[in-house]
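INFO batch 0412 | record 1 of 1 | parsing
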Amino acid sequence: MIKIIKILKAGGVGIVPTDTLYGLVGSALNKKTVERVYNLRKRDLKKPMIILISSLNDLKRFGIVLSPLKKKILDEVWPAKVSIVFECKLKKWEHLHRGQKTLAFRFPINKELVSLLKKVGPLVAPSANLAGEKPAETYAETRKYFGEDVDFYVDSGKLKSKPSTLVELGKDGQLKILREGAVKIAKMPKIG
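INFO prediction complete | emitting C-alpha cells
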C-alpha cells in the first residue's frame, strides 16, 4: 500500500478494485494525470469521469457547498455504489468537468479504497477498460487492456458488478436518476 500511495501522490496511475469494478485511477487534483487516464482509456475528451472521495468534506475542494438538507440526504445515501452529479462551474476544475460544468462523485463502500483515498486524495476512477470495451472483471483482463502502460496493478480476484447508479442532485433538492446501476433506487427522496 505504501508503494501505491507514493506512486499516486507522484502523479502515477494504476488499476485498483473499487466497490463496483476494477478502476483505472489517478489523482483528480493533477491535470497531467487526468489527461494520461483519458489517453490510456482512449476516452471521449468531452466526457467527465467519476471522482472517488473519502468523505463529504472532499466536495469542498471542488467548490461544492452543501446546504444542511443536502448534507442530510448525502449522509443517508453514501457510502454506496451511487455516484452523484453536482454543478461545478470552477475553471480550475475544467480538466475534470470538460466544459460540462458538472462533476460526478462517489463515496465508496470499500474500506480499503476509502483508506487509500484518505491518504492520496480524490481519484478519477473510470472502469478499467478501453472506451467502448467490456469492463475488466479480472486482473488478467486489466493486463490485456493496459499491459505495461500503467504504474501498478492490484489483483483482487474476479469483480462482477454493474457500474454505480448515477444520480443528479439538482438545485431544487431533487435527486434524479441518470443511469440505473448497481443500486436499485425505487424512489429518490426530495430534499427540503
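INFO post-check: Residues 60 and 66 are 9 Å apart (CA to CA).
INFO record closed
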